[in-house]
């Protein structure tokens, strides 16, 4: 490991994927020296060349040996074997900062490094990466989940601030729920947009993405702003941004949607679209009821409409 300089660390990047190359570049821009990067695939090597020019592409063992801060940016299922494998060959060093970027895992996975005297940090940026220089600007203001032993938590928070992010402490036990929540939002949003685009194409819209962009951007902006408010008994108040048939209590429109999507599914084979619509509409009704945006009779009428044409059964909401 190189001699440490005040305020400046030798950073080693293990895995020049979309996340690793970008974060390595961001740390370099913050004044740290990237001393090595491992890159297996041709795409990773090209990414390293573009975002970390001049940084030697070397073996993992060499990266770990040279670095004061080791950034592990590998897939979740590869993380534990990697950390354990480095420990088995005596690679981890006392005082070395070891950071992984898995959303699901906290610092327990870094236990083999900790036993060698390393400083374990779990730092996850809550954003999607393209693996290009465009991501560097997007890091500014991005929230990073930081998990670490209390004594070294400030180190993780400082690293996040250095790359322009906003650190938020997430407990070790809460990491799986945190990761599931982000995946439910981001991954399933992509699936939802795919369903909607297919339905719009069937309705004769040639460029569904262009039609959806302003609508969904406005809806997302409203929902995320409302999510920072609180609804008594319900937590974040994102449901306050809900528009359309549900908050109006318009059961007739909801039933028309059910009928139209059922016909679309029959003709296209996209049977997931009406099911998703019904599931999400039922969730909207229940949350609208809990947030007092709907009364019980209106909620019951909406749920009955969603069960039309042999649709899935629904729970009757309690009277209020």
Structure description:
The chain is α/β, with parallel strands linked by helices and 320 residues long. The protein folds into two domains: 10-170, NAD(P)-binding Rossmann-like Domain (Rossmann fold, 3-Layer(aba) Sandwich), CATH 3.40.50; 176-310. Helix content is 50%, strand content 12%. It has helices at 18-29, 42-51, 60-66, 76-88, 111-115, 134-138, 153-162, 175-202, 208-226, 245-248, 251-268, 272-290, 296-306; strands spanning 10-14, 33-38, 69-72, 97-100, 119-125, 143-147, 166-169, 230-231, 235-236. It has a seven-stranded mixed sheet with strand order 2-1-3-4-5-6-7, sandwiched between helices. Strands 8-9 form a two-stranded antiparallel sheet. α5 links the parallel β4 and β5 (119-125). α1 (18-29) packs parallel to α2 (42-51). The longest helix is centred in the middle third of the chain and has 28 residues, at 175-202. The radius of gyration is 24 Å and the shape is elongated. The termini are far apart. Residues 2-6 and 310-320 have low confidence and may be disordered. It comes from Xylanimonas ulmi. Residues 3-125 form the Putative oxidoreductase/dehydrogenase Rossmann-like domain. Residues 143-282 form the DUF2520 domain. It holds the Pfam family DUF2520. This is Putative short-subunit dehydrogenase-like oxidoreductase (DUF2520 family).
């Amino acid at each position: 490991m190189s001699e440490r300089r005040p305020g400046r660390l030798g950073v080693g990047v293990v895995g020049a994927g979309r996340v690793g190359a970008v974060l390595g570049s961001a740390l370099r821009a913050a004044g740290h020296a990237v001393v090595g990067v491992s890159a297996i695939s041709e795409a990773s090597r090209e990414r390293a060349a573009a975002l970390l020019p001049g940084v030697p592409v070397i073996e993992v063992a060499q990266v770990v040996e040279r670095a004061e801060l080791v950034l592990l940016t590998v897939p979740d299922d590869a993380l534990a074997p990697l950390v354990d494998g480095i420990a088995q060959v005596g690679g981890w060093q006392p005082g070395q900062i070891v950071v992984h970027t898995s959303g699901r895992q906290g610092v327990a996975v870094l236990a083999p490094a900790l036993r060698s005297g390393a400083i374990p940090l779990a730092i996850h940026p809550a954003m999607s990466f393209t693996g290009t220089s465009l991501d560097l600007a997007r890091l500014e203001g991005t929230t990073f989940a930081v998990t670490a032993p209390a004594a070294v938590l400030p180190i993780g928070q400082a690293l996040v601030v250095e790359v322009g992010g906003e650190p938020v402490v997430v407990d070790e036990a809460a990491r799986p729920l945190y990761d599931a929540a982000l995946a439910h939002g981001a991954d399933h949003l992509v699936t939802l947009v795919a369903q909607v685009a297919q339905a719009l194409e069937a309705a004769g819209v040639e460029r569904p993405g262009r039609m959806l962009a302003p609508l969904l951007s406005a809806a997302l902006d409203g929902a995320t702003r409302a999510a920072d408010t609180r609804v008594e008994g319900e937590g974040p108040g994102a449901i306050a941004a809900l528009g359309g048939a549900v908050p109006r209590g318009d059961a007739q429109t909801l039933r028309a949607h059910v009928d139209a999507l059922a016909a679309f599914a029959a003709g296209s084979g996209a049977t997931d679209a009406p099911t998703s619509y019904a599931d999400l509409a039922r969730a909207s009704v229940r949350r609208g009821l809990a947030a007092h945006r709907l009364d019980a009779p209106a909620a019951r009428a909406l749920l009955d409409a969603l069960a039309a044409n042999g649709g899935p059964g629904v729970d009757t909401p309690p009277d209020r």
